[in-house]
Amino acid sequence: MNHHPFGLDPAANALLRELLTQVRELLGEQFVAMYLDGSLTSGDFDQDSDIDFVVVTRDEISEAVFLALQRMHDQLATADTVWAIQLEGSYLSQRALRRHDPAFTRYPNLERGAGERLKWAEHTQTWDVHRSVLFERGMVISGPAPQSLIDPVSPSQLRQAMQPALNEWAANFLRNPAPLKSRGYQSYAVLTLCRILFTLQYGTVASKPAAARWAQANLSAIWKPLIERAWEGRHHSDGEAFPEDISGTLELIRFALERTRGEQ
Fold this sequence. Notes:
Blueprint: H1 10-27, E1 31-37, E2 51-57, H2 63-76, E3 87-93, H3 94-98, E4 106-110, E5 119-122, H4 128-137, E6 139-142, H5 155-175, H6 183-202, H7 208-218, H8 224-234, H9 243-263
Parallel strand pairs: 2-3
Antiparallel strand pairs: 1-2, 1-6, 3-4, 4-5
């Protein structure tokens, strides 16, 4: 793997090298490319970030290959480094990566965290956010430039991609707030809402810290303490969220839903 100036420590670099080696071996001629996206590409990566990767394959992955990849990721998760359970990534065929296509809705996906396994996930329009980041500033680990494999994502497409994130993912917490009891997830929800609102406003993608700064400067001052505590909670994710932060998160969701309905 070529050296990239993204500031990862040697253990994280070694993990990525091992991932690339194993993926190439398992996929063989199906392997097209491996990229990094997420906070690594925006200069906002820190000790509490995950390592976002995307592997591109020539065709859709078979069940047998999926199971082999799942075993590989199970093994990688046992590596003696804090980064072992911070990998978060997807495996997409060239056709599924090119643009959102409802014909391709299942793809192997790995979330960060202890006990997480590679699984089949739904490939929705919200993935246009990843496409945009990859197209604009994706880091090449191996393969061609991402711009050769991805169509540009327009501002209207990005705004459209955020609608289900707000109207389905976020709105679901109003019916079932239980996941927000985790301080880490409650903080994630607030910062993600900031990103959703930013994209709906400008039609571009902002990192969590950039979106949080924008929200604190441009939304009502009543949200400032909630956003500040969310950023602090991101770095202290263990334990339960404060009750007032759970209720504040639900209020922020209601505000975001009302704001976007008013703009339509």
